[in-house]
Amino acid sequence: MPRIKIDHTKCTGCRHCEAACSLNHVANTVNPRRARIRVMRDGNRYYPVIAGPFVDAACTSKQFIVIGDQTYDMCAFCRASCPQKPYFIEAETGIPLKCDFCGIPPSPSCVRWCNTGALELVED
Amino acid sequence: MNGWIGRCLRVNLTDGKHQIEKLDTDLLELYLGGRGLGVKVFTDEVDPNVDPLSPENKLIFCSGPLVGTGAITGASCNVITKSSLSGGLACAKMRGHFGAELKFAGFDMVIIEGQSELPVILSIIDDKVKLVPGLEYWGRSTAETEELFKKNLGDQWMARETYLVSIGPAGEKLLPLANLVNDRFLSVGGAGIGAVMGSKNLKAVAVKGQHSLQVADGSRFVQVINTLINKLNSAPLTSQSMSQWGTTFLVGLCYQKGILPRNNFRSTSQPLKNIGTEALNSAFALRGRGCFACPIACIKKADVKYSAFEGKGMVPTYLAIGTLGFNCGISDLSAIGMMSMLCGEMGLDPVATGGNFATLMELVEKKAVTPEELKIDISFGNADSMIEAIRLISTKKGYAKRLGQGGMAISESFNMPEIFMGVKGLSLAPFDPRAIQGMGLHFATCNYGPHHLYGYTFIDELLNVHENLDPLETQGKASLVKRYQDTSAVVDSLGLCNWPLMGLKFNNYVPMVNSCLGTNYKADDLLSIGERIWNIERIFNMKAGFNMGHDTLPERFFKEPIPDGPAEGQISHVKEMLPEYYQLRGWSEQGEPLQEKLQALGLEE
Fold first, then answer.
1. Percent helix, strand and coil across chain B, each rounded to 5?
2. Backbone angles phi and psi of B64, in degrees to 5
3. pLDDT for res B274
4. Is the domain B246-423 a CATH 3.90.190.20 member?
5. Full strand arrangement of the beta sheet holding B180-182
6. CB-based burial label for B389 (10 Å; 0-12, 13-18, 19+)
């Protein structure tokens, strides 16, 4: 099954993947808020997050991750489009978004435009 | 509309009111957007003789049509105003994500007029335009302002997507060296733009939004960008040098050719240790940062450590290393990194600040003033006192007032104007014009002062990307300078970055522009738009008091040959090249645009 491998150490935070995604899914339109991949930023780090399954309720147990001296909010890494955060939801209709690998066979537009190699299509 | 949003926000700070206007589509065709449109609107609305720090001066933020569409390097927003340092037009290019976010917030252009009584922050978030009281941010550094503003938004998701451009303490104190800073330490131009924003009592502008941008032919656009990314990847400069080290890779090259100035442009060669890319790798752990939609990512961030200080900051760029470092006799990369970071925090322009101190250091060396009188031991190579001085000038307290007036004002106050290395009141970017003649001509004639970002002649003269030219040769340089000046005017107006020109030809941009905007431009059409922009800037500057006499370099470059290094014995030949340049531009011998030229460009009055 193909997956998109994310190497956050290579991400430069240019958000070209967001533009690529929205161009591919909404005809002739660019809007990062309608993209199924978003680049999150925490302090000096960037990490791309790809939209996963939809959940209709927020988690009951909120998690925090500690790496080094910094604490990260698990919500920011989470792939779900949930009521907790305004990501991965089509603004006009409220329909949740999910990554579809840009069709069959998979050729994700975000991977094509990611020039630093932070996103990679792998088979496993 | 394709590319453009088509809306402009006009904010009057005096009465706190704002209105939303539609952009004139005829103007968009003639001036594209970004720098071109901003300059057109500014020159139409503002009197050239206005006092730059008065409420009558305006501040324009303008994003180009390709910004935010995903067009490669389409990220820049131009800031246009009347400079408080030179008195002419000022246009600074803002990198990072602000320009794209301004478009997503629903505006191509923001015009700021008047003067607020109390400090304010202009917040354009999710279609709500408001002026937030800014008293609690006043006096804070740019990084603190950004952090506090985001904290005060109260919603972490909103804070993550909000982008800010702000002034530091230097801008608040109306220091002529002040600039704007966005996305943490990305400096936005020189020419005293920070002081103009400070005089309006505007601490920052914050943007966020959910608007969509339209592209004319999406599938063609995607194809074009795929090929452009491949082209950039196959060019060695953009795929390796720039993405690995940023502009800092120029340091070694310029040093080898004798272009890197030292000690206020009096030498180009000295046993310089610790320079170049290897030293950079050992001094900092580099991490690339990209502006919106940039496949190159030339901005490098790292942890800066210098004596007692530790913090996150930006790795110094070529500009900062050249002006704050070598031109002040300092070659310790961590010290330069520390200075460049301090400049970012305080909202100071590295080029103007470096030029300011180099002038001061030469004054001290020539014994025009003693360190005791200045109350600070400022001299070539003394990094610690310079760091101290950078901290002091942004407070503008007591004796520090005299230290930060700008190079020209300082040299004039000691009756030695000849030692200020600058044109039109602005300090030279770190390229010695005696060793790179085309750049010298560009420095002399540029509407925005001697800055290489408005005419990238070194791409052919030094890096030999498209043409193999000798930097010391004068033949053909006038047309090279004109071509690059027009090119950069177009590229700035589209909202793109000039660095890809190290790997792409200008013609490669054209299909991207056409498929995005739905137009049928040819490369020559775009270049004539660039020429039109260059001419209206020139006309405004002439009305503001500049003439042919200002199209020159400091006397040092004509009289004193380079004493050492690879370009030893060279002087500048700008005076010989100037008539040819005027002729190519279609200007009179006095450098005034002729009526025929203006008619051809559609500018006659």
1. 45, 15, 40
2. -80, 170
3. 64
4. no
5. B128-133, B120-125, B202-208, B163-167, B180-182, B186-188
6. buried
CA distance B245 to chain A (A): 14
What residue has token string 């299509």? A121
Q: How many angstroms separate the CA atoms of A65 and A77, rounded?
A: 10
Local structure of residue B501 (DSSP, 8 states):
G
Three-state DSSP class for residue A121:
strand
CB-CB neighbors (< 8 A) of B292 in chain A: 14-16
Nearest to A115 among B97, B229, B301 (CB): B229
Q: Check CB contact of A115 with chain B, cutoff 8 Å.
A: yes
Q: Which of B11-20, B162-171, B299-308, B472-481 has the lowest mean pLDDT?
A: B299-308
Per the rule left: phi > 0, alpha: psi between -120 and 50, beta: everything else, B276 is left
Using alpha carbons, select from B324, B330, B337 the residue that is nearest to residue B270: B330
Look at residue B122 and tell me whether its pLDDT is greater than 80: yes
Question: Using a CB-CB distance cutoff of 8 angstroms, which residues of chain A are in contact with residue B97?
Answer: 15
Kindly list the domain boundaries of chain B, sorted by start residue.
Answer: 7-208, 246-423, 433-503+522-600
**Amino acid, single-letter form, for residue B450:** P
| B155 Cα to chain A: minimum distance (Å) | 10
- For residue B588, count CB atoms less than 10 angstroms from its CB and return exposed for 0-12, middle for 13-18, buried for 19 or more: middle
pLDDT tens digits, B547-597: 999 999 999 999 999 988 888 889 999 999 999 999 999 999 998 999 999
**CA-to-CA dists, residue B138 to B116, B334, B481, angstroms:** 13, 29, 42
| Single-letter residue type at B88 | G
CATH fold of B433-503+522-600, please? Answer: 1.10.599
pLDDT tens sequence across B316-349: 888 988 999 889 988 888 888 889 888 988 999 9
Q: Specify the residue for token string 């970004």.
A: B34
Residue B229, pLDDT > 80, answer yes
Q: How many CB atoms lie within 10 A of CB A116?
A: 18
Cβ neighbours for B158, distance < 8 A, ≥ 6 positions apart: B125, B126, B208
Task: Tell me which residue of B396, B395, B406 sits closest to B352, measured CA to CA.
Answer: B406
CB-based contact B297 A16, cutoff 8 Å: no
Q: Angle at which helices B218-234 and A16-25 pack, to 10 degrees?
A: 150
Residue type, B35: R
- Please provide the CATH number assigned to the domain covering B7-208: 3.60.9.10
Are the beta carbons of A30 and B213 separated by less than 8 Å?
yes
Q: Could you read off the pLDDT of B234-290 as tens digits, one per residue?
A: 998 888 888 888 888 888 888 888 888 988 988 876 655 666 677 777 777 778 888
